[in-house]
Amino acid sequence: MFVKNVFLKLKNDYKKQKFPYFSTFLLASGVGVYFLGKPKEGESKRIIDYVKRSINKSKRFLWIEKEIPTLPNQIEKKPVILFDIDNFLSKTIFSFYSFDYILKKRQFNDVFLFHLAHMYELVAISQSNKYIGDAFIRQIDPYGCFAYKIFLEDKTKFCLKNLNRPLENTVFISTKNNEFNKEFEKNILYLNPWNGKEDKKLLSLLDFFTNLFFVSSKDWRNTLFSYQNKDFFNEYSKIQRKLFDQKHFFRLQTDDLFQNKIKQINDERIGDFYKAKIFMDQKIQMENQKSGFLSKFNWLVKKIVF
């Protein structure tokens, strides 16, 4: 009751002052900071210290599982791609309209995951706690393309033993330095963090991974390592053009011809996804209806029994 009164008082005060409303999330955060950050005798009462104490207590509560998970043995042998969705497939943006944080999906995210999941075993490895991270990943991956989701406070502690996969055909996508264990140094594909604006870079990256999947090389690490300290998308666009020129050696090469071919490939991949999306959405709808029916059935049984 006390918390509810605090919410109402804050909301009414801000209405009178004609400030933007605080979202429920921010109100709850403020109350949480107040209670979790309460100082003990002799501790500082500064606001920043309230925040620090509340964060430390929250971490101890949320990061209950300290054991580093190990991926189970593969049933079907597939190459592996591991990455954190944050600043790669998604970006958390503050909205002044709702006065809250929103999760923004990168353009062609669904197309990218859909096609990769047919070739690779996808593993999401997040620094968020399990409860928040899992909710974010479900928004980014509604069709269940990720085979596994790993939540670690420190991603560098995830090592070769935990990976339980051969390194020859394993790729880590990273958007910052020292993100993963040094054992995977030659397996990392470095990309610039996504800036939140619409782009088509995921389609280029999909093309790279498609070509990588079908190459004859048994070890991809030299290929991945060759992109280090370079702008991946600039370098790969040069390779795309080189491959195109080799394939069409006896034809007059023009930029328009090359760009049209890239567009054709991308359009086909996007089209394939949207054809499959119809059936995937129907399946999700049926599962939701079934789940809703079972919930109502369980409620009815409880009413009858009790």
UniProtKB/TrEMBL annotation:
KW ATP-binding (keyword) present: no
PROSITE patterns on file: FCP1
Any Pfam family: NIF
Lineage: Eukaryota, Fungi, Fungi incertae sedis, Microsporidia, Dubosqiidae
Descriptive protein name: Putative NLI interacting factor-like phosphatase
Gene3D superfamilies attached to this UniProt entry: HAD superfamily/HAD-like
Keyword entries, A-Z: Membrane, Transmembrane, Transmembrane helix
Keyword check for tRNA processing: no
Domain FCP1 homology: 74-212
Membrane spanning residue stretches: 20-37
